[in-house]
Amino acid sequence: MKKLFATIALGLVISGAMAQDSTMMKRRPGSMHRQHDSFADLQLTADQKSQLAQLRKEQQEKMMAILTPEQKAKLAKQKAARKAAFADGQAKRSEHLKKALKLTDEQADKMKSLNDSFRQQASVIRANKELAAEQQRAQLKKLAADHRSEINAMLTPAQQDTLRQMRQRQHPKKTVR
Q1: Cα separation of 5 and 21, whole Å?
Q2: What are the φ/ψ torsions at residue 32 (nearest 5 degrees)?
C-alpha cells in the first residue's frame, strides 16, 4: 500500500512539474533568448540590469572553466553547425524572397549586400560592451528602421506591397511597417 501511494505521489509530482504554466517563459521579440516574465515585469533599473548581465557573464565563464577541452571542442562544433544551418536558411529565404517579390538580379544582389551590412553592423553594436542594454536596443532599433527604409527604397511599389503582405502573414499580430 505504501508503494502504491509513493508511486501515485511521485506521478503527481512529475506530472505537475511537466504541466507548469508555459507562460513562465517567453521569447523576447526578435531574439532567440528566453526570459522569465517575472524579470520582464520588474522594471529593473539600469544598474540592476548591469549587475544581472555581469552575473550571467561570470556564470558563463565558470561553466566554461568546468568543461574539458573535448567538451569545449564539441561545443564549438555545435556552434559552427548552427552557423552553417543559419547560413543555409538565409540562402533559402533569400531565394524564396527573390521569387515571391520577382526581384531582378540587381535587386537581389543589392538586398543581399544590405542584409550582410545590417548583420555586420548589428553584431558590432551587440559586441560593444561599453553600451548599456537600453542603448544597444535603441541603436539596434534605429539600425533596423534604417535597413527597412533602404530595402523599401530599392523595391517597386508593387514589391513593397507584396513584402508588406508577406510580413503580415508571417506576423499577424504585429503592425507591419
Answers
A1: 26
A2: -90, -5
Digit-coded pLDDT (tens) for 47-93: 888 898 899 999 999 999 999 999 999 999 999 999 999 989 988 99
Rounded to 10°, the helix 133-154/46-66 angle is 90
Interior angle at CA 73, CA 84 and CA 63, nearest 5: 110
Model pTM score: 0.58
- How many CB atoms within 10 Å of residue 101? 20
- Strand pairing report for 34-36 and 25-27: antiparallel
**Would you kindly state where each structural domain of the chain is located, as residue ranges?**
84-177
Amino acid at 41: D
Through-space distance between the first and last CA atoms of the chain, rounded to whole angstroms? 64
